[in-house]
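Work Package 4 report. The design task specified in the project plan requires that, given a folded chain encoded as structure tokens, an amino acid be chosen for each position. We show below one input record used in the internal validation round.
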């Protein structure tokens, strides 16, 4: 049973990796569009549209982060249920339970990634709304 849980966990991590790559690309794209927009001197409507896009990109990445955390947390809970049901689990599974024993996904579970999302949001929005003086 434990090997099936590990297999499912590994399979779910593939989608997390794809989401992570797509999220990083979207952050780059939003910041690039904001940069090009400022070079071209776009109007306020274009800035608002790009800002909404940037906020959506950050929200999407936050969702991807919560999804990835859910995979780890739910796998940990599954190992704990297996152990509590009387089945002997490996030391790796026991360590997994100890490491990822959060109740629910939260931005503060991974403060570095939360800080990354905040920095990305600032990189996208600040150049448009607070341009450098020339």
């Amino acid at each position: 049973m434990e090997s099936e849980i590990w297999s499912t966990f590994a399979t779910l991590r593939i989608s997390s990796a794809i989401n992570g790559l797509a999220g990083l690309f979207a952050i780059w794209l939003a910041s690039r569009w904001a940069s090009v927009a400022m070079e071209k001197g776009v109007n306020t409507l274009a800035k608002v549209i790009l800002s909404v896009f940037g906020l959506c990109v950050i929200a999407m990445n936050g969702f991807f982060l919560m999804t990835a955390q859910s995979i780890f947390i739910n796998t940990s809970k599954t190992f704990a249920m297996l152990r509590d049901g009387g089945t002997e689990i490996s030391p790796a599974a026991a360590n997994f339970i100890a490491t990822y024993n959060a109740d629910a996904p939260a931005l503060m579970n991974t403060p570095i990634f939360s800080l990354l999302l905040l920095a990305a949001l600032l990189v996208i929005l600040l150049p448009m709304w607070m341009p450098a003086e020339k």
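The chain is about 80% helix and 0% strand. Validation will be extended to a larger panel in the next phase.
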